[in-house]
Amino acid sequence: IHNVCVNSSSEGSLIVAKEIADLIKEKQNAKTRCVLGLATGSSPIKVYEELVRMHKEENLSFANVVTFNLDEYYPMDKNNMQSYFYFMHEHLFNHVDILPENINIPDGSVNSEDLYQYCIDYEMKIKSLGGLDFQLLGIGRTGHIGFNEPGSHLNSGTRSITLDHITRVDAAPSFLGIDNVPRKAITMGVGTVRSAKRIVLLGWGISKADVLKKTIEEEITSQVPATYLQNHKNTTFVLDIGASSELT
Ligand code: F6R
């Protein structure tokens, strides 16, 4: 892992948005698609804000971009304001020229009987497009990336998972109480994430300092799934002062 420490999440977000925009343009010039793995939550909001600004003010086009979101609650209806589908449209997709057919977000409304095959198909679709060129990540206090909670395997693929209690506690405010937070989710696997050619993880604020110390400085363990990024060849953690405060 390569660490970049920045003074603020705003500063870090601009750097990351610039990298994504440069990749999109590079692929445009090569007349190929750009396959992006995207995250939701508070961490990437300013990255999306900057990408929208670049689209509006600098003509950055998303016409060649295909996206795969990391995860979605299960069960979850698209129209629900707590859905990651809603989040992505609100923060990015509604404001840029991405083709609707190029947007992939795990569908929280598939029948439970179809879920297993649905996840396999999601994984296959990523592969069939040549894999993820870039994966954007946040990190949960459990050490999850996507919703790969403690216990997740190194080579796990897209699948349904039971959310950790701490993850549900952290999501409770936006659901107006923990009882409303879904118990499950669909997530890309650790293997899916690690297959990306480039990974950037965003860490903002002191609440992430402890898990980031474990992730970066302690041994690789399924108990902190983000540690699986340690031996990925092209991963950068972009951290603000609070998030990097426990690092030696
Ligand atoms: C979201 C995701 C999660 C979040 C993590 C951090 O798609 O996959 O791993 O990145 O829970 O959430 P925030 O950014 O809200 O602190």
UniProtKB/TrEMBL annotation:
The superkingdom listed in its UniProt entry is Bacteria
Q: Where is the Glucosamine/galactosamine-6-phosphate isomerase domain?
A: 16-236
Q: What is this protein called?
A: Glucosamine-6-phosphate deaminase
Native species of this protein? Answer: Flaviramulus basaltis
Query: Span within the entire protein?
Result: 27 to 274 of 642
